[in-house]
Amino acid sequence: MSMTVSIIQRFNTTSYQFPSGRAPFLFYPKIPMKKPLSPSLRWSGLLVALLLGATSCKKEETAASPTPPTPPPTVPTPTPTAFDIADTYANVAALGSLGQWGPYNVHDPAVIKDDDGYYYMYSTDVGYGISDAVLTPGLQVRRSKDLVQWEFVGWALKGLPPLGVAYITQRGGVPNKLLWAPYVLKVGSEYRLYYSLASNVFKLSTIGLATASAPTGPWTEKGLVVTTDNSSADITNGIDPTVIVDQQGQHRIYYGSAFDGIHVVKLDAATGLNATPGDRGPRIAQRGSTGGQINGNIEGPEIVYNKEQGKYYLFISYDWLQTKYNVRVGRANSPQGPFLDFRGRDLNLAEDHGPMILAPYQFEGHSGWQGTGHCGVFSDGNGQYYMAHQGRPGIDSYYMDLHVRKIFWTPSGWPVVSPERYAGEDNSAVAPADLAGTWEQITLNYIVIPGYGNEQLTPNFQYSTALTLAADGTFGGATAGTWAYAAPWLTLRFANGTSAPVYV
Fold first, then answer.
1. Where is this region: Disordered (predicted)?
2. Where are the alpha helices (DSSP H) in 140-202?
3. What CATH number has the domain bearing residue 48?
4. In total, how many domains does the chain have?
5. Is 108 a catalytic residue?
């Protein structure tokens, strides 16, 4: 069975394919686009195909490129009529320009929509060309009303949380200078912010909790939720939290990076802390191995309950954060699992799983996007889900750009994501005449490269090929066949006898 995903579009595009050997497609028109994004831009013809198939040790940033110059700080225009997001941003990367960071220097985002109409984003302390010793610790905070233009608010915490520091130092470790991978949720009138603090000691890490009465704080540290160390081989690294309140009101935290996979722990709903102090919970997901070596990292879990689908969805990132980072997904009827992949295989089996719904890709005329992992999945409150994650341009993988994508659900209840970043498009009906034309198609194949940062040096880019939908109902390019359209469905019939229904 193929473990790929296929995307098509007529801009700079992307394509995904899943386990049945058939490809879900996302389409955009192939029109030259010199500026990466504009809110006024309305992409035409988003198509999401519906037949899916099987498709870091430590979260440290490698030393960045030479430190960029520090221009004088400026304040961004609050509501510009046109807004461009560049792939690289050396001119505003430094601390002196933090007012212009917006979608830049974003890693491991967690997003919540508040009652004030803003989306608030919390992310890892990191900056292009900024050393750990200089960068402010405390989790970066941004906000946006349209998911396109982001305002840098500041830091959630003022330095490293004392309880997390104490746990590590009492066990002979030196805490990292910066915090990683937060998660945020609101319980009643209380905002709960979970942080990750790792150290120089193998697997000596902790996830702590801080609370506030407003999304911008001030935050008060409440306690440690999960702690890990190097006392046993079957202990994961205690970072990368995500929390869910299930349909019965039980709170759970999912976490883990590398080593032993993803674990789940029950929380005390009243406090947000571990219901059983010291509990590390059972493992619910892991990776396969090749020749006795693990196939790569597994980390960054994110869980949501989709009421319309009636299932819990667990999104997980595979591989090294700077290169091959990609997103997989499993689903379950219960928040405890088992979480199953597209083939019905338990994610806790010692094997790699699909579907892979996002991975490094490159469209014509662009350096490509790598490091497309550690996603935050969230809703607008009206049933539309989005995925936020970092993207690193192929031209320089030390830049970290925010990507936000719409999530679409197939009739069989699997998520697929838009091929390019969200730009305020409304995905309105597409006329048949607008479908004819030349598209770029990317099939997200996957090559196993066992190991971590030292081994996974290549992003394993998936490159676009041409696919032309002719007005006479045929298509050609890398594949050939016929197509028919009865809105909102496009059916692609391939020369080899397979077909793919595509939602327009």
1. 60-79
2. 162-169
3. 2.40.128
4. 1
5. yes
